[in-house]
Amino acid sequence: QVQLEESGGGAVQAGGSLRLSCAASRRTFSSSNAMGWFRQAPGKEREFVAGMSGSSTVYADSVKGRFTISGDIAKNTVYLQMNSLKPEDTAVYYCAADERPRAEWALLRYQYYGYWGQGTQVTVSS
Known about the structure:
By secondary structure, the chain is mainly beta. It has one helix and eleven strands; from the N terminus they run βββββββββαββ.
């Protein structure tokens, strides 16, 4: 069993930046693992934010050009750098991972991730 723990959330003003981190309890991440970030705002469904597997990186249109997903295999950690934050980015952000590589279309779908963190709150004020 793998446990994922997010950190780095907080409150920031619009236009600001945050970097979320997701640490795995054991060596899980390799260049081929699927890793992703999802978010859920109050009253809304969980939505895809960013994902990566092997050489593929995919972003939701709403964050493209502002957010960057990256991984540090040595530290067993995946990151989400969030710049130019907007109030509509306010949500609980969840890290997700799977030990199998995933195609780009699968990275978009929460069903293709086997491990989830408990989430970290991001609040962006106007």
